[in-house]
Amino acid sequence: MGKPIRVLVVDDSALVRKLLTEVLNSIEGIEVVGTAQDPYVARERIKSLDPDVLTLDVEMPRMDGLTFLRNLMRLRPMPVVMVSSLTERGAEVTMQALELGAVDFVTKPALDLANTLNAYRDELAAKVRVAAGARVRTLAAVKPKHSVDEILPAKAVGHWRTTDRLLAIGASTGGTEAVKDVLIDLPPDSPAVVIAQHIPAGFSGAWAQRMNRQSRLVVKEAEEGERLMAGHAYVAPGDQHLMVARDGARYVCRLNMAEPVNRHRPSVDVLFRSVAQAAGKNACAALLTGMGADGVQGLKELHDMGVETIAQDEATSVVWGMPGEAVKRGAASQVLPLERIAEAMLKASRVR
């Protein structure tokens, strides 16, 4: 066994600090080296304790979590897992935190944690371990916002390109930012985009709204039965599988609450397989940063049909689990850095 992952817990609630400390200390290979009730105390504890990972409350007195995270990622970047409440405000702030460089997030532990302890411990352990090995960028290196046209999506004018072409994207850990970066680089007349990102139900709507403001596409949560249109991106709602089906000459969204696949709902494999069946060679698919192997089988099925398939490269991935496994299994036609994926997908969509 190597050295344990050293965690600093930052939260203004003494009860939450106690619960997180107890849960983390019960996990093999993880050790809480200290706690802090606000960012000012956290700043001193970071200097003296040099933790490997920080768990950070979203809303705190004296200095809010976002301001502290912004300063931290600018001056001393380190892996951060946000701890957020499942509220509309919590979702919005959490999306901003991921944009600033936080690796991932977990919900605040429930007061009756005993009823869900094992599941919460497993989720927390996985995310802290991934954070400990993540490549953290300084805030200055985070891709800046583009023009106002990209922040306020353009409206459809004239005619749309045919929806016969389809772009599919799957991602997990680190994907909320990676998917956004791909969408920002797509033009307003892009083929329709369908997205499966591992994200809880309480956060997928806020994430879609944030991408809608920053992209030239219209980005929204997918709805059952709606037609896919060029210039639009459709996000799988948290805790639902998103599939693409044919309705005559059009593609439509199908949602269901079937069992998780690869422990995930939405599952990238479910989406990619439905794309293979509904769109075939009219599709192009990309598998981005993420832990595990969800999406690898679906990407391989698309690749074997002659569909252009793309895996994000290791250097630009927060976690090279899913795309790395795709490369290992021969599922990727191309292995590209994040900044080249949108261009490659567009090029592939123009060629049958």
UniProtKB/TrEMBL annotation:
Keywords: Chemotaxis, Cytoplasm, Hydrolase, Phosphoprotein
InterPro entries: CheB-like, CheB_C, CheY-like_superfamily, Sig_transdc_resp-reg_Me-estase, Sig_transdc_resp-reg_receiver
PROSITE patterns, A to Z: CHEB, RESPONSE_REGULATORY
GO cellular component, one term: cytoplasm
Transmembrane regions: none
Reactions mediated catalytically: [protein]-L-glutamate 5-O-methyl ester + H2O = L-glutamyl-[protein] + methanol + H(+); L-glutaminyl-[protein] + H2O = L-glutamyl-[protein] + NH4(+)
A family per Pfam: Response_reg
Signal peptide annotation: none
PTM description: Phosphorylated by CheA. Phosphorylation of the N-terminal regulatory domain activates the methylesterase activity.
Protein name as it appears in the record: Protein-glutamate methylesterase/protein-glutamine glutaminase
Domain remark from Swiss-Prot or TrEMBL: Contains a C-terminal catalytic domain, and an N-terminal region which modulates catalytic activity.
Gene name as annotated: cheB
